[in-house]
Design goal:
Oligomer: single chain
Number of domains: 1
CATH superfamily: Aldolase class I
Shape: globular
Largest sheet: 4 strands, parallel
Order of helices and strands: HHHEEHEHEHHEHHEHEHEHHEEEHEEE
Strand content: 5-15%
Structural class: alpha/beta
Bound molecules: iron/sulfur cluster
Distance between the termini: 28 Å
Strand order of the largest sheet: 5-6-7-8
Radius of gyration: 21 Å
CATH topology: TIM Barrel
Number of helices: 14
Helix content: 25-40%
Number of strands: 14
CATH class: Alpha Beta
């Protein structure tokens, strides 16, 4: 039997949840799940069936491949004009622990990363109150000049809106965002990370991160990036003051935006959109073979798109929401599996090992995840275990975790092209 062949899923016999039968039929047929289905996936006691269904669609898309990359995170400053309640990272100027890196230090990090074989820099920080917009463009230019092949994935949508405010470029709203993104792209920006999305809901926004941009603005920034041909990712920070229906709505809003973004590409590929313009990529191979996954430069794809959904569990330690319990391992597994099932037009689902832990990321590869992120090295924003910001893992450990989970490790670049390498030198495979 081929490894990607679909096997029957055994439901729990006693107390079995009949809603899951209909959901399984929809998933097997390549249909789209509703918000009510999403909630049923959260409520069912048949959690193993939820995980197995997510694994089924993950294998349809990626077979046994599980992706990782060699990357380095740079958090250039933790000084931030805002004070989101869930954030243990930010500091005010002169507060203990406040820091900022200068351009020379950042370039040094990029050179060190290149010497270690990294293909990607992931750079984000706080909303710095006095660094001018020019500093961001100059820093990107200096990074690219030092290592031209390095892909720079940088700045959350929240930072992009902040940069638009300080850029004094004149244009406002969506066009202003686009103008700023154009400048950053010309300076060397390669794609946007998915941070800052949290949960798209006004109640949750006002309670936990008032002052930050709302969901519509976050989506607008990514739409502008996609229109400029930049790919991006999306996150969902859950397990704080939001409720499960709000998580499902968050997923639906991302899915709807991706439908609109992929509409032209789907037409060019001969993929018929479903009701309400649904572009489902997770159906059986007969309807959506793997080669039809959106890839940069493919026929009909003149825009960027969301590559990856990254569910992020909230860690309350040292935040203003310290009283809250962190989500359980089972809730994390279930949420990742539901993200795979609901976000049927996202090519990838990432189990970010820094926040999930590597053992949990390993488990998640069998519950919908096809990516566990990379070597990371330094990460200041949060930590699931231990102290300090040195959070590094080796390619050997990533590959072992993937193999132990029964998958084949595939090194990718930021755009999910296979990497071929000879030591620190690398290229992408055709
Ligand atoms: S989450 Fe981001 S915007 Fe909010 S306080 Fe932390 S660094 Fe600042």
């Amino acid at each position: 039997m081929p490894l990607t062949a679909e096997v029957p899923i055994r439901p729990l016999p006693p107390g079995r949840d009949t809603r899951m039968d209909a959901i399984e039929r929809t998933v097997r047929a390549g249909g789209r799940l509703s918000e009510a289905d999403g909630l049923a996936l959260y409520e069912t006691p048949d959690v193993h069936r939820v995980l197995a269904l997510a694994d089924l669609v993950r294998r349809r898309l990626h077979g046994r491949a599980a992706y990782f990359n060699i990357n380095r995170h740079i958090n250039y400053s933790n000084i931030c004009a805002l004070s989101c309640k869930f954030c243990a990272f930010h500091r005010k100027k002169d507060q203990d622990g406040a820091y900022e890196m200068d351009t020379a230090r950042i370039v040094q990090e990029v050179q060190g990363a290149a010497a270690a074989g990294a293909t990607e820099i992931h750079m984000v920080g706080g909303l710095h109150p006095w660094l001018p917009f020019q500093w961001y463009c100059d820093t990107l230019r200096a990074m690219k000049a030092a290592v031209p092949a390095m892909h720079i994935k940088a700045f959350t949508a929240v930072e992009i809106v902040h940069l638009q405010r300080i850029s004094k470029r004149g244009a406002e709203g969506f066009e202003g965002i686009k103008a700023v993104l154009r400048d950053l792209r010309e300076a060397g920006l390669g794609s946007l990370p998915g941070g800052g999305a949290e949960v798209f809901d006004d109640r949750v926004h006002d309670e936990a991160f008032k002052g930050k941009i709302r969901g519509e603005q976050w989506l607008d920034v990514h739409r502008a990036a996609h229109e400029l041909g930049l790919n991006s990712n999306a996150t969902m920070l859950y397990g704080h003051v939001e409720r499960r229906p709000e998580r499902i709505r968050h997923m639906r809003l991302l899915r709807e935006q991706q439908d609109r973004t992929l509409a032209d590409w789907a037409r060019a590929q001969g993929i018929a959109a479903g009701p309400d313009g649904a572009i489902v990529l997770t159906g059986p191979e007969t309807s959506y073979p793997k080669r039809r996954l959106p890839m940069p430069g493919q026929e009909g794809l003149s825009t960027g798109y969301f590559q990856t959904i990254i569910p992020l569990p909230f860690y309350p330690n040292e935040s203003e929401l310290e009283r809250l319990p962190a989500p359980t391992g089972l809730e994390n597994l279930r949420t990742l599996a539901i993200a795979r099932l609901m976000l049927d037009n996202f090519p990838h689902v990432k189990a970010f090992w820094i926040m999930q832990t590597l053992p949990m990321a390993e488990l998640m590869l069998g519950a919908g995840a096809d990516d566990i992120d990379g070597t990371v090295v330094w990460y200041d924003i949060t930590k699931a275990v231990g102290e300090g910001n040195h959070q590094e893992t080796s390619v050997k450990d990533l590959a072992k975790a993937i193999r132990d989970a029964g998958f084949e490790p595939v090194e990718r670049d930021t755009l999910y092209r296979r990497v071929v390498r000879d030591g620190a030198a690398w290229d992408v495979a055709e």
